[in-house]
Design a protein that fits this description.
- It is a single chain.
- The protein is built from two helices and no strands.
- By secondary structure, it is mostly helical.
- Helix 1 crosses helix 2.
């Protein structure tokens, strides 16, 4: 079941979704920075992309 985003009246649902996505990406970025602190920058970016990809796969599987 897909939940409809709550519209607070001060912006549209797309704006609220964008804010949520930004918060989640920020949290994932902070987490990946902690676990990949000692790696070179390219590998840190790879870790972040892998974590974000796993998050999206889990989210997509919830929709199906």
């Amino acid at each position: 079941m897909i939940e409809q985003p709550a519209n607070t009246g001060d912006g549209d649902a797309m704006t609220e979704n964008s804010r949520i996505v930004a918060v989640v990406k920020g949290q994932l970025s902070k987490f990946s920075g902690i676990i990949s602190r000692d790696l070179p920058k390219p590998k840190q970016k790879l870790v972040l992309e892998m974590i974000y990809g796993q998050y999206l796969l889990g989210w997509l599987s919830d929709l199906v």
